[in-house]
Automatic annotation (TrEMBL):
Gene3D superfamilies: Tetratricopeptide repeat domain
Keyword Lyase: no
Taxonomic path: Eukaryota, Viridiplantae, Streptophyta, Embryophyta, Tracheophyta
GO molecular function, one term: RNA binding
GO BP annotation list: RNA modification
PPR repeats by residue range: 75-109, 323-357
Family listed: Belongs to the PPR family. PCMP-H subfamily.
One Pfam entry name: DYW_deaminase
Protein name: DYW domain-containing protein
Keyword entries, A-Z: Repeat
Segments forming domain DYW: 538-630
């Protein structure tokens, strides 16, 4: 154009600068800006804003700010561009300071800052800013979506409902982005039945989405909405509904994106449903989803959390990655499965590769040390985390260290550690301390710890349960009964133990004393016979674990039908010889069940894998991967 002697006007220059911004071509953008200055172009506000936008999108914020400050008349557009530049750079202080000096704040200004605060982990500040705005007349559909996301992030159902009513009044309830935000908000706030109804064609209260016919094209258009719904189910722990929704999408040949896949893999990991996890992996390969690092991390985590370390390693080792999340998933998997030394070796390998650990990585490393009783190593990494990487310890780090001291029986050191680090206000560390007192049968110290805990969490049944168990294990039946009585007077109930096993895509759940399973009588008969057989090879039921003062024979009957024993028995009855048996439990496995399963693995020559609330136990040939250290 210049070769032909045609002088570009402001519109042409603005268009070229917009292209530079889209391509993030700072060099070319600077050349255009230089040409404007050399030729004395009298830039109007549109052209000035184009130059500013180019610098911002090319992340040249210092030059952008110099230009912004030199503008004689700054339009609202210029203010918003500069604010957004700081937001995108993560410099929220500069963006907020600039926002406060903005003479006229339009809806774009508010949206930019509130959205930016949320993206940068400052949802509470965003909420305060929102109330400062007082939800006035400057409100558009993007604002609705932002505020609904804010309500979801902070679990503010009342705020979400207020916005929903305003959405209806504005006639914006048919907007796909807002509907998706509503589904996400209600799901994250635990109201998944309302989220389902918003999704469309699904009445409030419906549980079985597959009962409702929807064409593949219609379902595909609602992929994002279904993604929010599945994510919501996983968020509130309703994994079975997440699985049903996922199967419905597959059945309808709907488009399933990577976000949905990672949500379902997370649900598989949480429940230990390896069978469905394998199906999801096969689906990923079938449809050709790109095996990027986030998806690999999800698969590694799923396999590890389901006790299948071999496949987790295969996916991890496909190619080297500098992504700390992938390394952390593998380290966490090794730790949870009792391979503490391997976890530490992998962590050292990660450091040698130049990958910088984050706070979650150190939780996994300290957990590995705790599960394997590696006190010296744990202390070393706790120190390195603070002094070398400048990571401030969180609750999880402190709890791992308390747990580690406790497993080694260093109860006095726990007390010293708690007060030295100023964490006496954290209930989780006292819970770990109380568990250690039970583990080492220190009743007096346990009672002292219980009183500390009850001041922090008076309505939590766990301190009562742990203390009652501690006293009962020591034969202090009256004291145990008194503690249980105190718990009942407060209207507190112990979380019932339950175990489950997946066979042929069906999850079978067992609770002690519940005979509702159709094969209950056969299972109990098999279990009775099995206990008799295992007694002959050295297994002895530990009636001391019964929390009531009963005779030895009666106590053996109590411990004989713990939920994990029933689930293991059902697995042995219904799986082929040589096949592993995989059982999940919602509480810590008791000592008697641990001994029983060790004996069963020896008698049948089978691997039995049990995941309790804390870790995996891989039983083989009469031994457990935890080394009886749990």
């Amino acid at each position: 154009m210049q070769v032909e002697g045609v002088t570009p006007n402001d519109f042409t220059l603005s268009t070229v600068l917009k292209s530079c911004a889209c391509l993030t071509s700072l060099k070319l953008g600077k050349e255009v800006h230089g040409w404007i200055l050399r030729n004395g172009v009298d830039a109007d506000s549109v052209l000035e804003n184009s130059i500013l936008d180019m610098y911002v999108k090319c992340k040249e914020l210092d030059s952008a700010r110099i230009l912004f400050d030199s503008m004689e008349e700054k339009s609202t557009v210029a203010w918003n561009v500069m604010i957004k530049g700081y937001v995108n750079d993560g410099d929220m202080e500069s963006s907020m300071n600039l926002f406060q000096t903005l003479p006229f704040k339009d809806v774009g200004s508010w949206n930019t800052l509130i959205h930016g605060l949320m993206r940068n982990g400052r949802a509470r500040t965003a909420l305060e800013l929102l109330y400062e705005k007082k939800l006035g007349p400057i409100f558009n559909e993007f604002t609705f979506s932002i505020v609904l996301c804010l309500a979801a992030a902070l679990n503010l159902l009342d705020l979400g409902r207020q916005i929903h009513s305003r959405v209806i009044r504005f006639g914006s309830d048919t907007n796909e982005f807002i509907r998706t935000s509503l589904i996400d908000m209600y799901s994250k706030c635990g109201k998944v039945e309302i989220a389902s109804s918003i999704l469309g064609k699904i009445p409030v209260g419906c549980e079985m989405i597959p009962n409702y016919k929807m064409s593949p094209g219609e379902l595909s258009r609602q992929t994002v909405s279904f993604s929010s719904l599945i994510s919501g189910y996983v968020h509130v722990g309703d994994h079975e509904s997440a699985f049903r929704t996922f199967r419905a999408m597959i059945y309808s040949q709907a488009m399933v994106n990577e976000y949905i896949v990672t949500s379902i893999l997370s649900a598989c990991a949480s429940t230990g449903v390896l069978g469905l996890g394998l199906q999801v992996h096969a689906y990923i390969q079938k449809v050709g989803h790109k095996m990027d690092v986030p998806l690999r991390s999800s698969l590694v985590f799923m396999y590890a959390e389901c006790g299948n370390l071999e496949d987790a390693k295969l996916i991890f080792e496909v190619e080297k990655s500098s992504c700390v999340g992938l390394w952390t998933s593998m380290i966490s998997g090794l730790a949870t499965n009792g391979r503490g030394r391997e976890a530490i070796d992998l962590f050292e390998c990660m450091l040698n590769e130049g990958v910088i650990p984050n706070e979650i990585t150190f939780v996994s490393v300290l957990s590995a040390c705790s599960h394997s009783g590696l006190l010296e190593e744990g202390g070393k990494y706790f120190k390195i985390m603070k002094e070398v990487y400048g990571i401030k310890p969180r609750i999880e780090h402190f709890t791992c260290m308390v747990d580690l001291y406790g497993r080694r029986g260093q109860l006095d050191e726990i007390k010293q550690f708690i007060y030295q680090n100023g964490i006496s206000n954290l209930a989780s560390v006292w819970k770990s301390f109380l568990f250690s007192c039970r583990l080492h049968r220190n009743v007096e110290l346990g009672n002292w710890v219980r009183e500390k805990l009850l001041k922090l969490i008076p309505d939590d049944p766990e301190p009562y349960v742990l203390s009652s168990n501690l006293c009962a294990n020591d034969g202090r039946w009256e004291e145990a009964a008194t503690i249980r009585s105190q718990m009942r007077k407060r209207g507190l109930r112990k979380l019932p133990g339950q175990s489950w096993i997946q066979l042929k895509n069906v999850v079978h759940t067992f609770i002690m004393g519940d005979d509702s399973h159709p094969k209950s009588s056969e299972i109990h008969a098999f279990l009775d016979d099995l206990i008799g057989l295992l007694k002959e090879i050295g297994y002895s039921p530990d009636a001391k674990l019964v929390m009531h003062d009963v005779e030895q024979e009666e106590g053996e009957k109590f411990v004989g039908f713990h939920s994990e024993k029933i689930a293991v028995a059902y697995g042995l009855m219904n799986t082929g010889s040589g096949m592993p048996v995989r059982v999940m439990k919602n509480l810590r496995i008791c000592t008697d069940c641990h001994n029983f399963i060790k004996s069963a693995s020896q008698h049948f020559g089978r691997e039995i894998i049990v995941r309790d609330i804390h870790r995996f136990h891989h039983f083989r040939d009469g031994k457990c991967s935890c080394g009886d250290w749990w």
